[in-house]
Amino acid sequence: MEEKKITLEWHSIFKDVVKNAWIIVLAALIGLMGVFIVTNSVYTPEYTSTATIVVNAKGNSSSSLYGVSVEMAEIFSKVFVDPTMKEKAAAHLERESFDGSIDARVLTDTNFVELKVTSHSPQTSYELLTAVLEVYPDLSASIFENAVINVIKNPSMPKAPSNSVPVENKNLVMVICAGVALLAIVALSVLRDTVKNEAIFTTKIDAKLIGAIPHEIKNKSLKDRVNRKEKGLFIDGNPYISLRFAENFHKIAAKLEYMKLRNGDKVFAITSVAENEGKSTIASNIAVSLAHKGNKVVLVDLDGKKPALYKIFGAKYIEKAELGKLLNGEIKRSEFRLRRYKKSSLSLAINVNAYADNHLWVESGVAKDVIDALKEQVDYIIIDTAPLSVDSTVTDIAKFVDQTMLVVRTDKVRTTAINDAILTINEVGGSLAGCILNDVYPDFAFFGVAGAEDNGGYYYSKKGYGKSYGSYGKYAASVQSENDEPSDETEYI
């Protein structure tokens, strides 16, 4: 492995953001709630009453007198905030103290003075400012006898707090909180130590990459999207499957044929670290691809606790075709029959029911005996096992099969767990052929144009594959029905 580095995988980030969008919304609401709590518990409302006066010097209105008026306005702005002004205003109202603050500001390059009195109530601020305007002549006369002060804007009763939180600030707090939550989600997505694409796989996983299965949308028809009905990603007889998706399974099947030619490997176990990584779908499609090439293939379901292959193939319960019945000794080997898939060279040894004691199949050696018997009759055996994290017998299966392949779904399991699984398979004496990377998203491209495959060709995401990959006559996989009688196409072990 190469040195680990942080890379951005935009599909992974986008999925995490969409999946955790509720956290972003919740963070924005928390920010708004925080503003509300502060304004109602810590916040004390203040009310400001305002008036405007003009200061003029007595005499003609020449430019020189106007300059004197501006200077007087500056002086009077300081007089209004003097403590003496507060004392006189309080005495005028017959109050012990001036319960507020005074602010006086000269408007730029003018002789206008804006007076403000701020207090805890609108009534008090109005009364205090009115008192200031009534007592100021006593102070102004002692400073400038030639000054004339006129009120051009009388004070009014304030209708709202002057220190309330503006709506813009509330919105800003919400945006900041939502932005922090978004950055946290993106950071966690980027730093999450999972396999997000093929490049990351080669740098973090101690195993060979056998193949990469591209992401495929299950609901491609409008009807299925409206009904939210998911179709299985089965390459045989499914016109909605893209060419690239099908071709990648054919490439993996070709590699299995090469392993058999080189080493005589015929039995392949397909497992994963965790559930829902797509191993059953991958096992089914590999088996179908091998059968399309004329190979005699048996697909075996050894995931007794949670069988899934019967769902993919639409199989019904048939007692004599139930693998669990055979492995539990409830039916004889001579009575058991394999299900033939569409009269092809693919046979199925699967379960419809779950079996709690499935671990005994492997521990007693019965499963190995059945596989060995099948091995003499067919070209390939593909075994769908339980995930390594939920069934300890998977390592025992890895011991008696020729090769084990580990399905790794992108951005699902941490790389440490994947490498531990690889190490476990090797330590128990199993032979790991490599990993199959599943659900790989393509790189972003403009206008959804075709992208290059690793063989230099091009694929178009909306195109289906030709009839050579499956009949369009039936869109669902079919097996012998429950009422089918054994025929020349029925195989026995």
Q: Would you give an account of this structure?
A:
With 493 residues, this protein is an alpha/beta fold. The chain has 3 domains: 10-43 and 165-191, no CATH class; 47-153, EIF_2_alpha (Alpha-Beta Plaits); 198-492, P-loop containing nucleotide triphosphate hydrolases (Rossmann fold, 3-Layer(aba) Sandwich), CATH 3.40.50. It is 41% helix and 17% strand. It has helices at 10-19, 21-42, 63-80, 83-92, 122-143, 167-191, 198-204, 222-227, 243-263, 279-292, 309-313, 323-327, 359-363, 366-375, 393-400, 415-427; strands at 47-57, 101-106, 112-119, 147-153, 209-214, 267-272, 297-301, 337-340, 346-349, 380-384, 403-409, 432-440, 451-452, 458-459, 491-492. The strands form 3 sheets. A 9-stranded mixed β-sheet has the order 5-12-11-6-10-7-9-8-15, with helices on both faces. Helix 2 runs antiparallel to helix 6.
Q: Output the CATH class name of the largest domain.
A: Alpha Beta
CATH hierarchy: architecture of the largest domain: 3-Layer(aba) Sandwich
Helix content: 40-55%
The named CATH superfamily of the largest domain? P-loop containing nucleotide triphosphate hydrolases
CATH topology of the largest domain: Rossmann fold
Mean pLDDT: 81
Alpha carbon gap, first and last residue: 44 Å
Spatial ordering of strands, largest sheet: 5-12-11-6-10-7-9-8-15
